[in-house]
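Thread: quick sanity check before group meeting

JM: Hey all, I'm pulling together slides for Thursday and realized we never actually wrote out the predicted structure for the chain we discussed last week. Dropping the sequence here so it's in one place. If anyone has concerns about the input, flag it before I start.
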Amino acid sequence: MQIRQMTHNDLPSASALCLETFMQAVAPSLSAQGVASFAKVAAQAAFAERMKGDNLMLVCVAEGAIRGMVEFKGRCHVAMLFVAPSWQHRGIGKHLVDAALEHARADVVTVRASLSAVAAYQRYGFVLSGEVGEFAGLVYQPMEKRLHI
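JM (edit): ok, ran it. Output follows.
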């Protein structure tokens, strides 16, 4: 298992991984608007545009393919974290979060976790930090993790 920075060559696989995992784990609980909102954010072109900015994007490669990815916005907010369904519960999510947090530029890192991901983020040391919210049809739980920088 290797954690490395995402490249432009990774965009098709990373986008497909996010969309496949989202459709299985999150989409069934959302409105059509929420599904459409996520599809825009996870599109290859949207990833490519965000790669030009300050977002750190890491992938986990195992057995020659991308099995997980994390996007760390502004080095203080986990914007996306996805692990292929058949590769979950093998430590990939934790490795990706830990690798992203090595680049943190804040004492507190935040995430707007999908409701199905709250337990995973709690295992990574995040705690609830507000009420469940909704933006563009996407339902989320604010969470945070205090770091000792």
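AS: nice. The mean pLDDT is 96. The chain has one domain: 2-107.
JM: adding both to the slides.
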